[in-house]
Amino acid sequence: MTVFFALASVFVPGLPENYRRWVFYSCVALLLVSIVWWLLAHRTSPTGSNGRVDVRAGANQICHMQAAGRDAIHTVHHHYQSHAEPHGTRIDVSVLRDLKRHRDLGEKMLADIKCGDGESGSRWAEIDMWWMEAMAKSNQNVFAPFFSLNDLERLKEPWPEGDKLRIVANALDRGQIYNTDDDVRFYGTMWERLERLRQLIGLIDKKT
Fold first, then answer.
1. Separation CA 168–CA 29 (nearest Å)
2. 147-168 burial by CB neighbour count: b if 16+ within 10 A, else e?
3. What DSSP letter does each residue of 151-180 carry, written as one string?
4. Can you tell me the distance from the alpha carbon of 10 to that of 33, in angstroms, rounded to the nearest whole number?
5. CB-CB contact of 130 with 109 (8 Å)
6. Cα–Cα distance between 195 and 134 in angstroms, integer?
């Protein structure tokens, strides 16, 4: 209909030239606006060919979003469990065996302490070297799932004084050391370091 009036305005005789031109351009502009509006309306319309709203596409998108959310939550939960709760975690047996051998060496060194060792600089050097190796072995990355930062910091702390005095008193009763400051401090230092290493190995054994 718009095209008909446009053609009529151009070809009907008797109309002024300016009027026919103005009518023609107006009709053409109206036609273009109508076409653009029709295209945009059909492009964004959520209705199907029968005029009803098609909710299946939206429902599918919601289902996909929900599934993605469940997967994300499951992934985070699984990641947290595998690091914070390493029960049944497998470990390099050779590395753990090496740490336990170092503990056994400490057990032997404690049992071999004799009277007067606390006055010997070389004996102090031996237990200091053993302790440095114990800390280095305990800080290996393979043990990261088993030890927290607090566990490793506790390794450097002195053992509670009451327990240590009781153990030293037993060594005095057996006659293993002299009742001197040097011997008491030497035996007590070796025992508390060994006890810290035993404690760490106990954490591994509980979680494997």
1. 105
2. beeeeeeebeeebeeeebeebb
3. HHHHTTSPPPHHHHHHHHHHHHHHTSS-SS
4. 21
5. yes
6. 12
pTM of the model: 0.56
- % the chain with pLDDT above 90: 40
Q: What is the pLDDT of residue 92?
A: 73
63 or 140, which is more confident:
140
Residue 197 CA: distances (Å) to CA of 83, 104, 106, 136, 154: 22, 10, 9, 12, 10
**CB-based contact 17:9 (threshold 8 Å):** no
Helix pair angle (181-207, 121-138), 10° resolution: 20
pLDDT tens by residue, 162-189:
999 999 999 999 999 999 999 999 999 9
CB of 110 within 8 A of CB of 170?
no
C-alpha closest to that of 187 among 88, 93, 102, 120 = 120
pLDDT at 66 over 90: no
**Burial (CB count <10 Å: 0-12, 13-18, 19+), residue 40:** exposed
Q: Which position has the higher pLDDT, 20 or 149?
A: 149
Beta strands in the chain (DSSP E): none
